[in-house]
Amino acid sequence: MALRFYNTLTQRIEDFTPLEDNVVRMYTCGPTVWNFAHIGNLRTFTFVDILRRWLRYRGYRLDHVMNITDVDDRIIQKSVEAGQSLQEYTAAYTEAFLQDTATLRLERPEHLVRATDHIDDMAAAIHKLTEKGFTYESDGSIYFRIASFPGYGKLSHADFSGIRAGVRVEADRYEKDDARDFALWKALKPGEPGWDTVIGRGRPGWHIECSVMAMKYLGATLDIHAGGVDLTFPHHENEIAQSEALSGQPFARFWLHAEHLILSGEVMSKSLGNFITLRDVLAQGYRPEAIRYLLTSVPYRKKLNFTSDSLPSAETAVERLRNFKLRLETGKYAQGVNQSLIERTQQAATRFEEALDDDLNTAEALAAAFELVRDANSAMDAGEFPASNVAPALEFLRRFDAIFDVLLPTRRESGLTDAQIEALIEERNQARKTRNFARSDEIRKQLLERGVVLEDTKEGARWKRK
Ligand code: AMP
Ligand code: ZN
């Protein structure tokens, strides 16, 4: 069976091949750098990573653009509150995002582009839209007139034929089901940062940046456009309207949307305040690979319910896979071959590939791996795992890890010897005795930063390297 994806545009599973040659031209919406990314955001970015890796596994080359939204309503508000320039404020969170994605082993897109580096391109695009009659001006801002684009609603499959023309919204993010003309270019309020351009002084709306950067690097029609499910409407609907109004061509052939990560029954969200960052879970001592595993373990079109059991189970699963690999590499095996297990290894590989071809069914791909681990472990226990079975099993793991990438531990150069660690722990014990909890917490943090996790037990503090 061919590689296929669920396309939000057609609401069907469709066979995928790129439009031209062997190259997949793809755009994914990047982070808005007003805060640390939470593990919900990172679920969507991890889905994009699996998508990239699977496309490459299937022999395609990638030309992938991701934006960094470094100007929008919330960023401006937060940077003013922090007394920082837009650049200072966003540089810190951009760096944090890049660190987090590297920690999760997410591949960098071929083009990682900042909105503020493309303001002139955006202004030129808005100018062109105005010339073509798709915009109007009001109070110094420029709006896209939804009624001028008959295809509006084709992605979110909503009927907007009854929209009242001229009802505007200036905010970039607004409530669902609220179809309004949206701001392409915003007049500046006092104190807001702005740019001088061919359409005057102002700042861009959020939606136009993606259209402009996508088409600048990838041309009028993309093979794949992806993002979180909340972006379908209005963001992606607006992207389609702007881009197709500009080019007269279909904007993207395949639209892929990742479902949300859910915490206590609610969508994890920065605005709702119910969020956990990657840094939070690392500070609890979880391994980056376990977090990566968890985020990939539920197929992207299903909600991922994050519970107190999620990370401990992911840790166990990663450990099981690693122990199996270690056993293959270090065990002593008699000469010979177990043909039926060779066949089951091949079946596992086929099942793994078919699962990922099937709209990236990661849960099924993992199930294939764990079934093989179970079968092979039982064969080893029974002394029925001869030497010739080692290489095919390792080859399966190699393919598996080209996508899931959880087998190799993250290298942490703690630089601390055991004696130094013990000395710090002793100092912490003394600090606790004298109720100097600030120092005691500081030592715990220092150790954690250097990859050493402390666990307080009745017998005193125990430690281990991550
Ligand atoms: P933002 O930085 O707010 O623009 O969001 C970055 C990405 O995270 C977007 O693709 C969102 O759709 C996605 N996202 C936001 N919340 C969640 C969530 N709870 N689970 C999964 N993805 C999310
Ligand atoms: Zn976007």
How would you describe the overall organization of this protein?
The protein is 45% helix and 18% strand. With 466 residues, it is an alpha/beta fold. α4 (119-131) packs across α5 and α11 (362-381) runs antiparallel to α12 (390-404). It is built from 14 helices and 18 strands. Zinc ion binds at residues 29, 210, 235, 239.
In brief, what are we looking at here?
With 466 residues, the chain is an alpha/beta fold.
What keywords describe this structure?
six-stranded mixed beta sheet, alpha/beta, 466 residues, 18 strands, binds adenosine monophosphate, binds zinc ion, globular
SSE topology:
Elements: E1 4-7, E2 12-15, E3 23-28, H1 39-57, E4 61-68, H2 73-82, H3 86-103, E5 111-114, H4 119-131, E6 135-138, E7 141-144, E8 168-169, E9 181-186, E10 195-197, E11 200-204, H5 206-218, E12 222-228, H6 232-247, E13 252-258, E14 261-263, E15 266-267, H7 278-283, H8 288-297, E16 304-306, H9 310-330, H10 339-357, H11 362-381, H12 390-404, H13 418-433, H14 437-449, E17 452-457, E18 460-465
Parallel strand pairs: 3-4, 3-12, 4-5, 8-9, 12-13, 14-16
Antiparallel strand pairs: 1-2, 6-7, 7-9, 9-11, 10-11, 14-15, 17-18
Helix pairs in contact: 2-3, 4-5, 5-6, 8-9, 10-11, 10-12, 11-12, 13-14
Bound molecules: adenosine monophosphate and zinc ion (ZN).
Distance between the termini: 41 Å
Spans where pLDDT lies below 50 across 5 or more residues: none
Bound molecules: adenosine monophosphate, zinc ion
Shape: globular
- Total helical elements: 14
Query: How many strand elements?
Result: 18
Q: pLDDT average, as an integer?
A: 94
Proportion of β residues?
15-25%
The class by helix and strand makeup works out as alpha/beta
Radius of gyration: 26 Å
